[in-house]
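Objective 1b: paired records.
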Amino acid sequence: SCKAAWSSTAVYTKDNEVSYGKHNWKAKWWTQNEVPGASEWGPWQDEGAC
């Protein structure tokens, strides 16, 4: 199942989970307004399709 939808205004900290683009993502560190998957080296770890 998909996690709560990612929000550009929300602050996420390590291990927070969101859904974006029909994938679940886990934050690797503090982040705000960084689109999941936008950067290979970004703060989000792809946890696969949901």
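Objective 1b, second protein:
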Amino acid sequence: MKTLRPFAIVALASAGLLMLSACATPGAPPPARTVTDADAGPIELTRGQGLEIALPLNAGTGYAWRLDREAPAWILTGGSSRVTDAKMPGAPVTTLYSYHAAGSGKTDLSFTLKRPWEPDKPDDRKVVFQVKVR
């Protein structure tokens, strides 16, 4: 039986390590980040990270959050929204907007709390998030 020479052993071991490293999956993105109207301002995300924006309102008042400025799809994807169920009539609920950081860049997400049938007014409540994806 032939024995392998030391350089052959090192070469085989190196090839095996290269194959394993090629199959390795990159680290998972950080967990999704949830922000509220109190967090308005700069928001930093990592590519692949989720973003959930939770905006409070009172059910039954006619007010709703309106998305004024949408993000480009190459920076943030998704943009789906839903309103949580009220525990009782007139109780607080939350409008949840869900996004996924798709690519590097900067964008603003702008929201206004208003009754949809009323004209825009200067004193309407506005919330803006300056999102940066790295």
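The beta strands are 33-36, 41-45, 50-58, 64-69, 76-83, 92-101, 105-114, 125-133. The domain at 29-133 is CATH 2.60.40.2020 (Immunoglobulin-like).
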